[in-house]
Structure formats: C-alpha cells, structure tokens
Design a protein that fits this description.
The complex is a heterodimer. Chain A is mainly α. Chain A has one domain. Helix content of chain A is 73%, strand content 0%. Chain A has helices at residues 3-15, 27-37, 40-62, 69-98, 104-130, 135-155. In chain A, helix 3 (40-62) packs antiparallel against helix 4 (69-98). The radius of gyration of chain B is 23 Å and the shape is elongated. Chain B has strands at residues 9-10, 13-14, 21-27, 33-48, 52-58, 65-71, 74-80, 91-98, 102-117, 121-125, 130-136, 139-143, 148-154, 157-161, 166-171, 174-179, 184-199, 204-220, 225-229, 235-241, 246-249, 257-258, 264-270, 275-281, 285-290. Chain B has a nine-stranded parallel beta barrel with strand order 9-10-12-14-16-17-15-13-11. Chain B is 0% helix and 63% strand. Chain A binds chain B through residues 101, 103, 105-106, 109-110, 112-113, 116-117, 120, 123-124, 127, 130-131, 134, 136-137, 139-140, 143-144, 147, 151, 154-155, 162-165, 167-168, 170-171, and chain B through 37-39, 78, 80, 82-83, 106-109, 124, 126-127, 142-145, 160, 162-163, 178, 180-181, 198, 200-201, 219-222, 240, 242-243, 261, 263, 278, 280, 282-283.
Chain lengths: 171, 291
Amino acid sequence: MNDTTSDKLDSLIARLPQTIEPSRDLWPYVDARITVRAPRAPVWQLALAAGIAAAFVSALFLGVPRESETTRTFAYRQQLDAAYAPLRQASLTRYRARADRLDPALRRTVETNLAIIDRALAEIRVALERNPDDADLGQILKRTYEQELAIIDAVTPPNPSPAPQQYRGAL
Amino acid sequence: MRTPIFGLLLLSAAAAHAGEAVDKTLDVKSNGLVRIENVRGEISVDGWERDQVQVVGTLDDRAKSLTFETVGATTTVRVETPDNLNRGEGSKLVIHVPQASRVRVDLVSADLHLTNLKGGVDAKTVSGGIEAADIGDRIELATISGDITLGRGVGPTSFSSVSGDIKADADTSEIKIQTVSGGARVTSSARVQELTMHSVSGDLEVSASLADGAHVKGSTTSGDIRLAINPDAGVVVEMKSTAGGGIRNTLTHDRPSRDIAGAASLDLTLGNGQGGVELSTVSGRLELGSL
C-alpha cells in the first residue's frame, strides 16, 4: 500500500463517528442468547472433555507416533489428568449437592471408598513419577478414574429421576 | 392365507396400596425380557417351567403403585415409592419367571436372590446383596456396598462391587471382576478364555484352568491378586509390581527380579505361549500358583 492510499484511508477513518447507536435495542436479544446458551455450556464442555479423554486414551493404547517413551508417558499422564479433571469436578459437585439425600450408611460407604480411590490415585501418580515409561500404570490410573466416576454416577446419576432405573449402567 | 402376526399385548396395571399383599400372574413369552424395579426390601426371582410371570408377597409400606404388565415380549414389575423412605418396611416379593427369560433387575436398598434363570441376568443393587445360583447365559451382577455370591453360574460373567465381597463358583470362559475395596474369590470349572480384573485396594483371588490362547489381565493399586492356573496352560506371563509391592511364583521355579528402586517383575512362558497373562500392581502383591 503506498503513502497516498494510506493517507486517504486515514482521512476517511477520521471522519467516521466515534460511536454508533444501534438501530434497535440489542440488549434483550443479547441477553436472550446468553440465557439460552448458558445451560448448554457445561454439557458441551463435558462432552468435549469426555471426547478428548476417550480419543486420548484410545490413541495411547492403540498406538501413536512415539517420541521418547519418557516424554510421551509423562505427557500422557498430564493429559489424562487434564481430560478427567472436568469430569471429576462435575461428578463431585453433583455428588456434594445430593449426598445428604442418600441413606447415611450408603453415604459412609461411598465416601470411604472415594477416599480410598483418592489415596490410590495419589499412589499411582507417585508410581508414575518413578516409572514414567510404565504404560500399565497409565491403564491403572485410567481405570481408577473410571471407577470413581462410576460410583458417583451410581448413587447420584447425572439425570436424576425418582424411578430406580436411574441406576442402570452406572457400575 | 397367512395369519398376520401381531405383537402379543397383554396389559395389566394394578393400583396397589402400601404394604398390601400381592398375588398376580400374567401369561408371557417363554424367552422374553422381565424387568424388575424396586427401591427397598427383599426380592427373589426364581425361574420355573411355566410361561407365566407371577408376583407374590407384600409391597413396600410406602408403595404408591405396582406396575405389572406385559407388552410384546417385555414384562415389567415395578414398585413405585416416594423419594423419602425413612420409615416402614420395604417390598418382600417372590417373582417367578419362565426359566429362559432374560432378567433385568434394578434395586436400590434391597437384597436380591436369583435362582434357576437360564436366559441371562443383569442385576444391580446399590446397597443390598446379591445371591445367585443356577443362572446362566450372560451374567452381570453389580452392587456398591452389598456382597455378591454366585453358585453354578454358566456363561460370560461380570462382577462389579465397590465395598462388597464377591464369591463365585462359575462354569464360564469369560470373567470380569471389578472392585474398589471389596475382595473377590472366584473359581471356574470351565476353561477360561478371557479374564479381566481390576481392584483398587481389594484382594482378588481367581482359580481356573486357562484355555488355549487365553488372555488374562489384572491390576490393583494396593490390593493383592492371586491367580491359580493349570500348569499346562500355554501363556506368556508378565507380572510387574512397583516398589512396595511384591511378586510370588509357586507355579514354576522362575523367580522374580527386583530392580534397584525395589520394583519387581517376572516374565516366563508356559507351554506354547499362545495366550497371555498380564498382572500389575502399584503396591500390592501378585501371586501365581497352581490349581
């Protein structure tokens, strides 16, 4: 672009108004869009996270182009943690919101076992730090995450209904 | 002229009163699906020779309704109760179904007894126990806090428990076991082709002959796995434990090795090595033994 054209553009831009009033009140429209979209976001995010988790785990165990084993496995663990983090967060939030409706004995059992899983996850992570090349540990980590989510789904299903069929498929 | 075949439709919905005695029977297909849903109490499902489903017993003290209906090949037995069940007794029902029925049971805080069912069982209860005997085809049994006991189970079998213990004598080539803190002791009189097991802190013990080309995969975090197999199995065995865990082999004379960090491993080949046994643990113990 030469200088003459640039000067003309600057001149035209300078003549533009600093603000423009919309031809109609847009806020109700914007507000409606936000209101409609807001509830979808968590589902969308969870679906994406689940998809990433599934794709990632599949790629890991079905085979992917390899860099160094150590780098790959370390990256794997980080990505697995990251992929499951939003799913765990959503499940635990749901559980905490509804736990007081559970039978007290069942609640104790669930929470004792969630604590066991939590300790196991910590133990697995320590083992992975020591053995970053160990793909079996990665599988144990993945299965343990899955068990944690399955327990929470079983007692506080994602789509609650009073009928007991809500528990199907949870374990 | 061919007679048009219409789906069998028998419908019988009955309003029920809380705590009411019930004794109802419907004609059904011999190999249909029977779905049973109940929140609390004790449910027995028993296979019999007749092409009928019969429900006998008493309903939950707080039951709102009993749905008992057959639509096509599906029969439903559902006890509806309010959300808040902090008083009264649960349902106590004996449900007879045709032996060849597929049975699906969903309970919440109820014990379940299953006997003489040959068409496949998929049963889940959250805080009750499951006792099953003489059942077959495809078996899926799951609880959170209850124990699972299976006697004479035939066909691919899946067990899932959180804190409950699993004890099973099966006659199956496919076994899947999953627990968190619960233990499992499973035997199979049939040669096993596929065995998968995972536990967080529970101890798992499986005794079974392995078929040619069998695949066994097991893992725990702090729990132990003891696998007893036939010495003439044809498998490559790979066992690994991290530091803090251990490996014991009483099947052959091979000894596990241990690295400087304390992790142990054992690799050996039995017979033609066509199948595989892969066991790993984070800090538990792995043991390979003989039947």
